[in-house]
Design brief:
globular; 266 residues; six-stranded antiparallel sheet
Length: 266
């Protein structure tokens, strides 16, 4: 099924819809690959803060990328392209939700770019974007640095969300339809103001093979997607200067060991 062709949006004109979805499905040689990971966190109260400590990949696909990540690139900007209008009650689409007793994040039904950043730009896994079951949205998320590894958590493990990686011009590099019903249980549940009881949270990662980006477009399309309630973070990638410094330090250490060995053999 070509999702970009079937998406229809209340309140969007046909011309706007064509402009949004005229991008190619992906760039040659670049693709998203899903991977599984486990979550290390602090906090046992499903109503409180559940703070992300690290994630560890649990499949062979990403073994070459490294296994454990404790430094994250967080959402630092957002652009709501479309979000069903909230008119009170269970209307609208994406909004900010938070554990009933949590202190990091925000509760706000009428989403703004700023409220999206407040919900996703922290390490509290109970600070999420909640989506009404029949809601539709298109939101661009900007991370504070480019990377190729993205970690998603979804409350309820029963929803779908289309994820697109974009380049600096907004062209689609790759896309993947996340289905949280196939994700792994993250080891915790959350009880937020929107739901009123504890739901399990699933975890699934996406590896952008062949490129890196600091911009994702996330899309929900009505009842067929069943309202994804999500959190996303990315793996922080060392700056080029840091990488160069690490390489130089390693080279110097090897040279020193060789010199000591040569002196000992002399």
């Amino acid at each position: 099924m070509n999702i970009k062709r079937i998406l229809t949006w209340a309140g969007l004109t046909a011309g706007t819809a064509l402009a949004l979805f005229a991008s190619p499905a992906g760039a040659a040689g670049i693709s998203f690959a899903p991977f599984s990971f486990s979550t290390s966190f602090t906090g046992t109260n499903p109503r409180g803060n559940i703070m992300l400590n690290s994630v560890t990949t649990t499949d062979s696909l990403t073994a070459a990328l490294g296994s454990t990540y404790s430094s994250f690139s967080l959402v630092s900007g957002a652009n709501i392209i479309h979000n069903d209008l909230w008119r009170g009650g269970d209307t609208g689409a994406a909004s900010s939700d938070l554990g009933r007793e949590a202190t990091i994040g925000i509760r706000q039904e009428l989403a703004t770019n700023e409220s999206i950043v407040t919900s996703l730009g922290n390490l509290n896994l109970s600070s999420i974007i909640d989506t009404e079951d029949r809601g539709s949205f298109i939101i661009d998320l900007f991370f504070d640095q480019a990377t190729d590894r993205f970690f998603f958590w979804e409350r309820g493990m029963n929803s779908k969300m289309l994820v697109q990686a974009l380049d600096d011009l907004g062209n689609v590099l790759a896309e993947y339809l996340l289905d949280s019903s196939t994700s792994n249980y993250a080891g915790f549940g959350i009880d937020t103001a929107e739901i009123g009881y504890t739901q399990r949270v699933g975890a699934q990662g996406l590896w952008l093979n062949g490129a890196s980006t600091n911009r994702l477009r996330v899309i929900a399309n009505g009842a067929a997607f069943n309202g994804p309630d999500f959190k996303v973070a990315a793996a922080a990638v060392p700056e080029p200067a840091t990488i160069a410094g690490t390489v130089l330090a390693a080279s110097a250490a090897i040279a020193a060991r060789r010199k000591r060995k040569a002196q000992a053999e002399a």
